[in-house]
């Protein structure tokens, strides 16, 4: 019957499509039956020439109705034409047949059944009423000659048969109506479910469709149709093959996924479509459609366009790499700042020591000693007389003794200043050496003694801590050297120590204290704690402390703690902070795993 369906009827709802198929099939069968009636009547089997004309006319009528329906005529009008032609032909046939039994022929039940199915209960009752009128009244009247041959009610058997025929026709209409009502209620339930399902599928922004065993479309929502049109420039209709690709690798992936779903598995994969102007990335899930016998007869496809998410992930990865590079540079800048600060302080001390040495040398008594020597040289010939009788000579020994003691003290002072000068120069050399030792490529993993690295970081701030009166407490648990990224860990420590120094300075306390602790947390974590009794952190700031750009310092850039948290994450660790609030200090804890180390790239 589908071959006879016009093109504009292929997309009807299942119920209307079924009625259209029944109408077409009934029209073809009725045309064939009418033609058989005409042929058998022409051969003299029954009725003679009148039935030949009726059968031929009915066959032609049904053929014209079939042409009308094939041309796309409305379903209801076509149903009225078919039922009307059947009614007219059957009524004429009953009057031409020699026996009344033809009125109760089984074919008479076809019209009420067909009318109810095609036109509904009420229209079916109208057609059944005409049949009852024909069988129960008109035909008995016709057989009695409308009273001309015998009294109208003389042939009681004809009237009884007519009444029984009418009752049987009404019974057929009633049963067909009950079936039709039940069918309509079921259809209404199905249609309501279909509307809800259609509304559900159309309410989503994701493509959804169902496929048969060959991967052809059965049904799809508007999002899937729109996306298919954008991808391939074609409309998505039932029967369309979903995969239109030429890439063999992608086709193989699609075939394998479809076969797995048809074997009863739920499959999820990423489906990439590269077009001339853009690329689509879909997160696709295939689920089997189960038929009778617990055998998959198709699959449902749920997709999600993750193109923007993939692009965002790529940008985020690039941004993360950029942040890590900036973090490395920030850490280097932080260490360089510490180096310059300490070197600057040492240079100040060097300058002071050099100035004192210069001042002492300029005020030295060595010139007075030279004049005394010249005076002795002048009286070399009468030196005893000069030392005993001359006033200057008698004072000269005491003068030499005084100058000698003064020069000895001056020498001691100069030696002390020179030692301090050398100590400061040595400190500068050590700080520069420390910077050179730790200015290595980020990501390089090596065995690191954590306590030594903490002391190295501390030395970058040590001069400032001493000058500011900050007391340092160390509590180091002995831990074997660990494979760590020295640069990242040093960057975190320098940041935390610098923040602690600022917090202690801002607090204005006299008992400034900085506690450094290293301890193991079971067999899983190494915990490094940097705790101060400085200004503390407000509770509302704790959740934002490691966010990029957030700072509580007036001149802060909000990058130090954020970069430290990223560095800790890169080492598979975590950085957190605890504080009881303003004025109660803060404790920063860096936790690093003790097992499962891998070389970081």
TrEMBL record:
The keyword Metal-binding does not apply. It comes from the Bacteria. Residues 265-318 form the PAC domain. It is an enzyme of class 2 (transferase). Gene3D superfamilies: 1.10.287.130, Histidine kinase-like ATPase, C-terminal domain (3.30.565.10), PAS domain (3.30.450.20). It catalyses: ATP + protein L-histidine = ADP + protein N-phospho-L-histidine. Keywords: ATP-binding, Kinase, Membrane, Nucleotide-binding, Transferase, Transmembrane, Transmembrane helix, Two-component regulatory system. Pfam families: HATPase_c (PF02518), PAS_4 (PF08448). GO terms for biological process: phosphorelay signal transduction system. Residues 193-228 form the PAS domain. Its EC number is 2.7.13.3. Residues 376-596 form the Histidine kinase domain. The chain crosses the membrane at residues 20-39, 51-71, 77-97, 109-138, 158-181. This is histidine kinase. It comes from Cystobacter fuscus (strain ATCC 25194 / DSM 2262 / NBRC 100088 / M29).
């Amino acid at each position: 019957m589908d071959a006879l369906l016009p093109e504009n009827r292929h997309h009807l709802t299942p119920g209307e499509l079924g009625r259209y198929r029944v109408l077409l099939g009934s029209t073809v069968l009725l045309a064939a039956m009418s033609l058989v009636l005409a042929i058998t009547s022409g051969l003299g089997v029954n009725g003679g020439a009148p039935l030949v004309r009726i059968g031929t006319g009915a066959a032609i009528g049904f053929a014209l109705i079939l042409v009308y329906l094939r041309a796309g005529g409305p379903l209801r009008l076509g149903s009225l034409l078919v039922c009307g032609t059947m009614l007219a032909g059957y009524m004429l046939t009953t009057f031409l047949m020699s026996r009344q039994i033809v009125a109760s022929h089984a074919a008479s039940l076809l019209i009420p059944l067909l009318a109810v199915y095609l036109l509904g209960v009420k229209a079916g009752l109208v057609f059944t009423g005409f049949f009852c009128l024909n069988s129960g009244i008109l035909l008995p009247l016709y057989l009695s000659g409308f009273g001309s041959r015998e009294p109208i009610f003389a042939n009681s058997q004809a009237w009884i048969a007519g009444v029984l025929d009418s009752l049987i026709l009404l019974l057929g209409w009633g049963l067909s109506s009950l079936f039709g009502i039940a069918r309509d209620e079921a259809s209404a339930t199905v249609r309501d479910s279909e509307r809800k399902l259609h509304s559900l599928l159309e309410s989503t922004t994701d493509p959804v469709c169902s496929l048969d065993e060959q991967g052809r479309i059965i049904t799809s929502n508007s999002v899937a149709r729109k996306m298919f049109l954008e991808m391939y420039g074609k409309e998505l209709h039932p029967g369309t093959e979903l995969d239109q690709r030429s890439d063999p690798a992608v086709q193989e992936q699609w075939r394998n996924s479809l076969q797995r779903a048809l074997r009863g598995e739920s499959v999820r994969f990423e489906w990439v479509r590269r077009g001339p102007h853009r690329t689509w990335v879909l997160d696709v899930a295939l689920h089997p459609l189960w038929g009778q016998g617990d055998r998959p007869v198709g699959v449902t496809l749920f997709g999600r366009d993750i193109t923007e998410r993939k692009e965002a992930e790529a940008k985020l990865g690039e941004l993360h790499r950029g942040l890590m590079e900036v973090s490395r540079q920030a850490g280097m800048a932080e260490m360089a700042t510490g180096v310059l600060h300490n070197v600057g302080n040492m240079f100040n001390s060097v300058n002071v020591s050099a100035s004192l040495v210069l001042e002492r040398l300029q005020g030295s008594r060595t010139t007075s000693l030279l004049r005394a020597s010249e005076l002795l040289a002048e009286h070399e010939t009468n030196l005893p007389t000069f030392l005993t009788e001359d006033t200057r000579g008698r004072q000269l020994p005491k003068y030499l003794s005084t100058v000698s003691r003064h020069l000895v003290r001056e020498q001691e002072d100069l030696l002390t200043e020179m030692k301090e000068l050398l100590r400061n120069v040595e400190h500068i050399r050590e700080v520069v050496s420390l910077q050179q030792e730790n200015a290595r490529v980020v990501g390089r993993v090596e065995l690191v003694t954590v306590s030594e690295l903490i002391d190295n970081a501390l030395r970058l701030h040590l001069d400032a801590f001493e000058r500011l009166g900050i007391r340092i407490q160390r509590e180091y648990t002995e831990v074997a050297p660990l494979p760590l990224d020295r640069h990242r860990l040093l960057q975190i420590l320098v940041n935390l120590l610098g923040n602690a120094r600022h917090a202690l300075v801002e607090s204005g306390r006299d008992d400034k204290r900085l506690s450094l602790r290293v301890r193991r947390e079971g067999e899983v974590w190494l915990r490094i704690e940097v705790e101060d009794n400085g200004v503390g952190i407000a509770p509302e700031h704790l959740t934002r402390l490691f966010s990029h750009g957030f700072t509580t310092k007036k001149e802060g850039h909000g990058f130090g703690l954020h970069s430290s948290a990223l560095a800790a994450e890169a080492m598979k660790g975590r950085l957190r902070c605890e504080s009881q609030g303003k004025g109660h200090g803060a404790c920063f804890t860096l936790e690093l795993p003790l097992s499962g180390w891998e070389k970081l790239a």
